[in-house]
Design brief:
With about 70 residues, the protein is of the alpha+beta class. The protein has 2 helices and 2 strands. A hairpin with a 2-residue loop joins β1 and β2.
Length: about 70
């Protein structure tokens, strides 16, 4: 398989995932108190939004790379 086709497939899959998943979520832990052996931590849920334009750009780039790889194969 041509590297350009493989790159196109990877970009296409990443684009679809970016369109299906509107945001990445992660948990951040922060130490708020430490007195001797006693520790207190706080967990906060954070969200990193993924713009839909990024997903569409990845899908179009993936299709373009895959098409260029197929065209170069001949």
């Amino acid at each position: 398989m041509n590297k350009l086709i493989l790159t196109g497939i990877v970009l296409l899959v990443l684009g679809v995932v970016a369109l299906v998943t509107p945001a990445l979520r992660y948990t951040e832990r922060e130490e708020v108190l430490k007195i001797g052996p006693i520790e207190a931590t706080a967990e906060t849920q954070k969200r990193l939004p993924i713009p839909s334009a990024v997903g569409w750009v990845l899908v179009v780039a993936g299709i373009g790379c895959a098409a260029a790889g197929v065209a170069n194969r001949k």
